[in-house]
Design goal:
The chain has 257 residues and is an all-alpha fold. Helices cover 81% and strands 0% of the residues. Helix 5 packs antiparallel against helix 6 and helix 11 (206-221) runs antiparallel to helix 12 (225-243).
């Protein structure tokens, strides 16, 4: 159907083509099934997703707001799909620079998710991470740290210490510690993050090299210049090996030496 073709086009990076199909699907679904039908709701969500990928956030925002309203009306305010719709709208608001509005929705989503799904459910952990990110944008780093530590502890217990979501939580905690001026603690978290990436993805993976660069930068700020230089050289050698010596991404690394 139109939805499947649009999803395929979106996955292949053809979001503009996908948008046209998704608008046709939404119009037909509203006309035939009604504005509150589950398939209409899915069509609204898919169109909003595509507009978000095209960075047309001002167009995506009213669609995500409508999706939330329909979901609340048809499924209830505590339904898991409604909580996802809450998070989707909050994400768009945050990207539009409306962090205060996003915070209100994210607190609501987190509270409901903890009550309905449990504090250790993966969706709840995502909600924690999103709220912490918004709090960071609002300069509320102390509260963000508490939430991120809670999320990290739960993620390690539920998903495992090497799960991608756990590694993301580690990286987010390190960034918040930097904002709080606690560079020594940030370095310890970043080192742990780098070692986990090396073990799970390999020493030459782009994500491993990105974390390596962050750690090297932190070591430089801590005046541990020999360690920082050693990491920068390791990163440079790996990038030259995997990307080639003339790749443009290598120039910033050369500048760090």
């Amino acid at each position: 159907g139109l939805g499947n073709l649009a999803a395929t086009l979106r996955c292949r990076g053809k979001a503009e083509e996908a948008e046209g199909l998704e608008r046709r699907r939404l119009e037909a679904s509203e006309r035939v099934l009604g504005p509150n039908h589950p398939q209409t709701l899915a069509a609204i969500n898919n169109l909003a997703l595509t507009l978000g990928e095209l960075d047309r956030l001002l167009e995506a925002e009213p669609l995500k707001r409508r999706a939330l309203e329909v979901s609340e009306e048809t499924l209830g305010s505590d339904h898991p799909d409604t909580l996802v719709a809450l998070g989707n709208l909050a994400d768009t608001l945050r990207r539009l620079g409306c962090a205060e509005d996003a915070e209100i929705l994210e607190r609501r989503r987190l509270k409901a998710s903890e009550a309905i799904l449990g504090s250790d459910h993966p969706d709840t952990l995502v909600a924690m991470g999103n709220l912490a990110a918004t709090l960071g944008e609002l300069g509320q780093h102390a509260e963000a740290e508490l939430i991120e530590r809670h999320r990290l502890e739960a993620s390690e217990r539920v998903l495992g210490p090497k799960h991608p979501d756990t590694l993301t939580a580690l990286g987010n905690l390190a960034a918040t510690l930097h904002e709080l001026g606690r560079q020594v603690e940030a370095e310890q978290v970043e080192r742990r993050c780098m070692e986990a990436h090396e073990e799970t993805l390999g020493p030459d993976h782009p994500k491993t090299l990105a974390v390596m660069g962050i750690l090297a930068h932190t070591l430089g700020k801590l005046k541990r210049h020999l360690e920082a230089e050693s990491l920068h050289r390791r990163r440079l050698e790996a990038m030259e090996r995997t990307l080639g010596p003339e790749h443009p991404d290598i120039l910033p690394v050369l500048g760090s030496l």
